[in-house]
Write a structure and sequence with these properties.
This protein is an alpha+beta fold and 91 residues long. Helix content is 34%, strand content 15%. Bound molecules: zinc ion (2 copies). One zinc ion is lined by residues 8, 10-11, 13, 24-25, 27, 30.
């Protein structure tokens, strides 16, 4: 299997993923940019863990990622966003 490809959340460049939660292409600029973003949104508020509700199964879970929508049980995490949108439209 070829290594999975992700897009860097900062510059949008594609890179080969080495670790599961890697979000950045690895360039120093992107790391710096990411740190600034996170300093603002996360560390300044001193948020360690927030309680959220999974948009798929409705279970509540704690996470430090404010943008996270899924509880983290494999199934829910893997639901593509597109599919979820379609579901909502149909309802
Ligand atoms: Zn980048
Ligand atoms: Zn869930």
């Amino acid at each position: 299997m070829p290594p999975p490809i992700k897009k860097c959340v900062i510059c949008g460049k594609e890179f080969k993923v080495k670790s599961n939660n890697q979000k950045l292409c690895g360039s120093e600029e992107c790391k710096h940019e990411w740190k600034i973003t996170y300093d603002k949104s996360r560390y300044l508020e001193n948020v360690e863990l927030i309680e959220k509700q999974c948009v798929v199964c409705g279970k509540s879970f704690t996470t430090s990622d404010t943008r996270r929508k899924y509880c983290g049980s494999g199934k829910c995490d893997n639901k593509p966003r597109m599919k979820f949108k379609v579901k909502v439209v149909i309802r």
